[in-house]
Amino acid sequence: MNIEVRYYSKSGNTKKIADAIAKQAGISAKPIHKPMQPTFILPRRIHAYI
Predict the structure, then answer these.
(1) Using CB atoms within 10 A of its CB, is residue 5 exposed (0-12), middle (13-18) or buried (19+)?
(2) What tens digit of pLDDT does each residue of 3-16 get?
(3) What is the pTM of this model?
(4) Considering only CA atoms, which of 8, 28, 9 is closest in space to residue 19?
(5) Alpha-carbon distance 42 to 23, whole Å?
(6) In Å, what is the CA distance from 21 to each residue of 7, 12, 43, 48, 49?
(7) Using one digit for the tens of pLDDT, what is the confidence trace for 14-39?
C-alpha cells in the first residue's frame, strides 16, 4: 500500500502535524506543490478479474 501525507502550511503549524502523522506511518510528509508518485488504483470489482 502506498501512503503519502501531503500538507499546505503558511505558518508551519500544519507541517508539524503532517510530520507527526507521517512519522507514525514511517514515511515523510511532503508539501502539496511537490509532484505525487504515480499510483495504480485497483478496479472496484477486482474479484471479477481474479
Answers:
(1) middle
(2) 889 999 999 999 99
(3) 0.65
(4) 28
(5) 26
(6) 11, 14, 28, 35, 35
(7) 999 999 999 999 999 999 988 776 66
* Residue 38 phi, psi dihedral angles, 5° rounding: -65, 140
Region label for 32, one of left (φ > 0), alpha (ψ between -120 and 50) or beta (otherwise): alpha
- Alpha helices (runs of H) in 1-50, residue ranges in sequence order: 13-25
How far apart CA 24 and CA 33 sit, in angstroms, is 22
What is the distance between the alpha carbons of residues 43 and 20, in angstroms, rounded to a whole number? 32
Measured distance between the N- and C-terminal CA atoms of the chain, rounded to whole angstroms: 19
